[in-house]
Amino acid sequence: MDIIFIDDLRISTLIGIYPRERSMAQNVEISLQIGTSTVGAGATDNIHDTIDYAMVVGRLRNDLASQHFNLLEKLAEHIANVLLKEFGARWIRVSVAKLGMLPGVRRAGVIIERGERD
């Protein structure tokens, strides 16, 4: 299996359980490893034969701008489902982190893996 990756994508979304988090969007940092086959694209040099990472980023930016998630775990599951169902990924590793939310902690987050990894 081949992997397309997107590292350190920052997206603003409503995330959290506290009142201040429900009213003010905050940046989350997302990194993706998307398991797929790139053999077709390697042979044809055609973007339609692979997962277009620009389309992935655009889809996530639009989607997360209009939703609220209580937990990072739910946000990570949502992202994994989008990649598996809409983009045809066979396997996905999603890392999602809040930035600077705890004193003395740069990032706090979750990493999940979903799908079949060969």
Polypeptide structure, described:
It catalyses: 7,8-dihydroneopterin = 7,8-dihydromonapterin; 7,8-dihydroneopterin = 6-hydroxymethyl-7,8-dihydropterin + glycolaldehyde. Pathway: Cofactor biosynthesis; tetrahydrofolate biosynthesis; 2-amino-4-hydroxy-6-hydroxymethyl-7,8-dihydropteridine diphosphate from 7,8-dihydroneopterin triphosphate: step 3/4. Belongs to the DHNA family. Strands 3-1-2-4-5 form a five-stranded mixed sheet. It is elongated and about 50 Å long. It is built from four helices and five strands; from the N terminus they run βαβααβαββ. With 118 residues, it is of the alpha+beta class. The chain has one domain (2-115): GTP Cyclohydrolase I, domain 2, CATH 3.30.1130.10. The protein has helices at residues 19-23, 39-44, 53-65, 72-86; strands at residues 2-15, 26-36, 68-69, 91-102, 105-115. The N and C termini lie close together (6 Å).
